Amino acid sequence: MTLLIKDILLKTSALPHRGAATANEVEAARLLETYLSDMGANVRKEPFQTPGTYATIFYWLIGGLLTGLALVPVTGVSIGLVWYFIWLSWLYFNWRYSFIVKFPAQHTAHNVIGHWPASGDVENRQKVILMAHYDTAPISLFYGTKQQANSRPSLIISLSLMLLAGVAALAEVAGAGLPYIIYLRYALMAYFVVQAIVGTAGYWLKGYANGASDNATGVAAALATADRLRQINLPNLDVEVVLTSAEEVGMIGAYYYVEAYKRKWNRAQTMAINFDTLGAGKLTVIEQTGTIEPIYYKNEPTRIARQLLKTDAFQNRAQVGCWHTADFDSVWFVRNKIPVLALCALDADGQMPRIHQPDDTLDHVNLAPVNAAIDLAEAVIMNWITPGRNKFTAP
């Protein structure tokens, strides 16, 4: 098993990066298809349209807002444009679907899916989805060691200032607070320009992160967990590995996957596990995410995982925690009330070391949380599929 994990990490990290909709993503997808085929899965690759990076989305959101604010002295109609882009921003940064992801320019990315169908009775089949994103992020100044802890407050401040800009635009059109409201509008416009520059400068200067921890480790954990389940050969268990792209753009690949299949799933007999960034720190069962709006992981797989963390097998290997810096592919399962367990690794400060940074490379990856994630995932699944599962034991 360790050989499989190391091989996956070595080959995926050998690419300089795996940016969504790039040539490197195509090569990574081909590599992952080969792994899944060699493991006996039915493999398919599903295309979808996405912006290339979140830089495109930032520019549209801030550019649209700036255009509306600039037109305030010209026409009151611009207020509608201002509030439209505030609404799109609010949705996007609170990890809900925002139509901004459909704005130009669009590129084709791919989800890679491997399926081992159950062979037992149709009525008793249970479905497990093992998910990890394989794309890598642009380098970002917001994710440095000192800045990462301030990422959520920074987003909240920015969203609050957008709301203030909307109110200021209304006041100026109504003729209230002049001329100071005009000065406020110009100051906010300057702030948003600086934010757009700082938020995307890392990408233009340094390109993409290699992504060994974020998220080649998650890919390795998902494949290794599937391999274990395949060897156990449970006839009533339907296993699907979903390796998504464009997670770093806004969890877009996972969104399209869930939208395509959620109506076909029996929620009482379906669960998902999302593996994300397991290369440094301690394995963490995520209980809450969200920016302004909290997102709670209150479901059966998470409950089972929390109970397992109290056993001798896991109490020193894993912890529970929250992650508010961004979010995971699993958010769409939570939004649709589909049971999902989100696993990552966090350090003592609750951060993910080196994510979205140039040093997220293979030589910094620690396999301990990867192996712990695989063990915990298997244990959760085995307790979930077993009738009368109340002992919470590791396989």
What are the key terms here?
Aminopeptidase, nine-stranded mixed sheet
Describe what this molecule looks like in 3D.
- With 395 residues, the protein is α/β, with parallel strands linked by helices.
- The chain has 2 domains: 2-51 and 106-139 and 209-385, Zn peptidases (Aminopeptidase); 56-102 and 143-206, no CATH class.
- It is 46% helix and 16% strand.
- The protein has 12 helices and 9 strands.
- It has helices at 2-13, 23-38, 54-70, 78-93, 151-174, 180-206, 212-232, 247-250, 252-261, 300-308, 331-335, 367-385, and strands at 42-50, 107-116, 126-133, 237-244, 270-275, 282-289, 295-296, 318-322, 340-346.
- α10 crosses α12 (367-385).
- The two termini are 16 Å apart.
Sheet with most strands: 9 strands, mixed
Annotation field: number of helices:
12
Gross morphology is elongated
Helix fraction?
40-55%
Overall SS class: alpha/beta
Low-confidence stretches: none
Question: Would you count the extended β strands for me?
Answer: 9
What CATH architecture label of the largest domain applies? 3-Layer(aba) Sandwich
Mean model confidence by pLDDT: 94
Compute the number of structural domains: 2
Task: Work out the radius of gyration.
Answer: 22 Å
Distance between the termini: 16 Å
CATH class identity of the largest domain: Alpha Beta
CATH fold naming of the largest domain: Aminopeptidase
Assembly state: single chain
CATH superfamily membership of the largest domain: Zn peptidases
* Share of residues in strands: 15-25%
